[in-house]
Design a protein that fits this description.
Shape: flat
Number of strands: 10
Order of helices and strands: HHEHEHEHEEEHHEHEHEHHE
Largest sheet: 8 strands, mixed
Distance between the termini: 162 Å
Number of helices: 11
């Protein structure tokens, strides 16, 4: 009765299908197209790019090398500063621990006597004072192996030894090994006795000033010396200027006076033991056997012999100061470089 025919919902289906197909269309529209292949660079541009790369790499290597060298030099300077500080604050003389029993104190005089090195008056006097002050030291022995050197340095040591002998009432013995010549003998005569080997070289009581003159060579080479001085004698003994008779006479008078001082010290030290001859103070040197005969030395003997038979104290304690490594480094990298050059060019008075 009120029956209505059934309605079939088929109309919306096409719309749904159309809607379903829309995303595909949108997706297709949103997908970008593949990029086009880049055009190859021209040969000039490729070469320029390679050159820039090489230049950048080389610059980088150079910067790295500079940085490494900068670090190296900074570390080197730091090491030098530490070495100098060590030299300044470290004890210059080696610490000597003397035994409680009586002993023989040893101070060595080796090499050229001068303000630099181990045979300087400063180091030797320091060692001598320490040796004399030690109550265990029964006597002081100077073991000498030196060709000579500065009359000033040797005079300082000689005077100090004589002062310390009186102050501490201790004997001093000199023992010569290979050589005891000139300024070294100047020091040795301050001892109470001098012991030598039969083949030791002893003597050379004289003074010299040595140097070179280059005026003839300069004339041959056409080199002109231009020296300006304020003072008539300021340029005396200049190796590049001719030596005048006045300059030579003055220098000769000066070394003659130093020679007389040397002779007086030897006579005071050796006293009546010295058998003076015309050649004693001529600058000659003799072997140990002749030195004993002439009174320049007393007898034969070594360090051990003197300690055992003369001092009667076989234990030997070395008071000789030694320069430490830091001091040598500081001198080499510091003022010693300039000092060496000046020393090589300058003239000095030497006892030989």
């Amino acid at each position: 009765m009120n029956d209505q025919p059934e309605q079939t919902p088929s109309a919306p289906a096409p719309a749904t299908a159309a809607a379903a197909s829309e995303p595909d269309t949108a997706t297709a529209v949103a997908t970008p197209a593949p990029p086009a292949a880049a055009a190859p660079l021209p040969p000039q541009a490729s070469a320029l790019e390679a050159s820039v790369d090489r230049l950048a790499a080389e610059l980088l290597r150079e910067r790295r090398a500079e940085r490494r060298w900068r670090i190296f030099f900074r570390l080197a300077w730091l090491g030098l500063v530490l070495a100098v500080a060590w030299a300044l604050f470290a004890q210059r003389a080696r610490h000597v621990t003397a035994p409680s029993t009586p002993h023989t104190a040893l101070v060595e005089v080796r090499g050229e006597i001068g303000p630099e090195g181990e045979a300087s008056a400063e180091l030797l006097v320091t060692a001598l004072r320490e040796a004399f002050r030690d109550p265990g030291a029964q006597a002081v022995v100077l073991r000498i192996n030196s060709p000579g050197g500065s009359p000033v340095q040797s005079g300082i040591v000689n005077d100090e030894i004589r002062r310390l002998k009186v102050l501490h009432q201790k004997k001093v013995y000199a023992v010569v090994e290979e050589m005891c010549a000139s300024a070294a003998y100047y020091i040795a005569v301050s001892a109470d006795e001098i012991y030598v080997d039969k083949a030791s070289l002893v003597g050379s009581i004289g003074v010299l000033i040595d140097g070179f003159g280059f005026t003839g060579l300069m004339d041959k080479l056409g080199v002109e010396r231009r020296l300006l001085t304020a003072g008539e004698n300021k340029g005396m003994l200049d190796p590049f200027s001719p030596q005048t008779a006045k300059e030579r006479a003055y220098a000769q008078a000066m070394i003659d006076q130093i020679h007389r001082q040397f002779i007086q010290v030897v006579k005071e030290g050796r006293g009546p033991r010295l058998k003076e001859t015309p050649e004693t103070f001529s600058g000659l040197f003799w072997n140990g056997e002749e030195a004993v005969r002439l009174g320049l030395a007393d007898r034969y003997g070594s360090l051990d012999y003197v300690a055992r038979e003369v001092v009667k104290a076989e234990d030997i304690v070395d008071y000789t100061p030694r320069e430490n490594v830091a001091e040598r480094l500081a001198k080499r990298f510091g003022a010693a470089i300039g000092a060496g050059a000046v020393k090589a060019l300058s003239e000095s008075v030497t006892l030989r």
